[in-house]
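Sync notes, pocket subgroup
Present: LS, DG
LS reminded everyone that the earlier model was apo-only. Rerun requested with zinc ion included. Inputs:
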Amino acid sequence: MNLDLLRRLTAAPGVAGFERQVRAIVREELEPLVDDVRVDRLGNLIATKRGTSGPTILIAAHMDEIGFLVRHVDRRGFLRLQPLGSFDPRVLLAQRVIVHTATEDLVQGVIETTVDPLHFGPPTDLKRPDVRDLFVDVGSSAEEIEIGDMVTLDRDLNATDDRIVSRALDDRLGLYVKIEAMRHLGGHGSTIVAVATTQEEVGSRGAVVAGYDIDPDICVALDLTVANDIPGASPDQEVTRLGDGPAIKVMDTTQISHRGLVRHLRDIARELDIPLQLEVLDHGGTDASMIQRLRSGVAVVTLSIPARYIHTVNETVAIADVDRCIALLARYLAEAHTRDYAADV
Ligand SMILES: [Zn+2]
């Protein structure tokens, strides 16, 4: 595991529309591995490795993490937050954040709530907290902060022998898998376009633009999916299990994966002896969902890395699943040109 790279990718801040620092790392890693790198007007990084024959494959992983912009500044030292992406407010209480000012200063703050502060007696209002009930205390540093400044959660990556816990693994881990798969790619017939997309967490806005521009035959999105194999969940609610291998998304609410692609990936996994899970998720979507319906249609699939506690600062993945995902993707890219999926629609 190239832990140093993953650490740098997760340490870089970047909410939707503010992906510049993440993009710089991806660019540095991909540039030596491809023929051409460019950035479009929405900030998507598009890295192309040309093939000799066969289809054009777009590999999508998004650079933005869920986070906030400053919505209101109270000069007494408090901020209100505008979420970019879906947070469960229960996981935000008592978290520390970093406000990134326009002059690139980093201001530390703490998230607290207006609802039932602890020392005012037992909680009376048991309603589920809402982001509107939260504020950030930054003290006198509020002077430097403006409406629209980026706010990210403040938490480092932890690694053990078999697991990684970090904020922003969604989807820096997808970027990591893409970079490592490109690094381990041998001969290939297809043209591979590795796209680091922007603004996925607010509706895959970058992917739509990049997909329309590139007009691929095939799109593989790389993202995390739910591993709900935790106490209190019955087996039918697990979606995937941590450590049981990468998952092929069969469907979610916005995408039905192309059956030919699903079959091809399953065949490769069998051949390489990689355990694989099949995923049906009854909420959410990925960049592939939006790319699928562009122009005359794109054959798409999402290769998912099982993760516990998605959209919290403790997103947890198994290192073995990450390594298997890289091996599966690298082999797929090497042999994608050998199959025709026309009969599988
Ligand atoms: Zn994601």
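DG: The pocket of zinc ion is lined by residues 62, 170-171, 200, 223-224 (CB under 6 Å).
LS: The chain has two domains: 3-65+167-344, 67-153.
Action: DG to write up.
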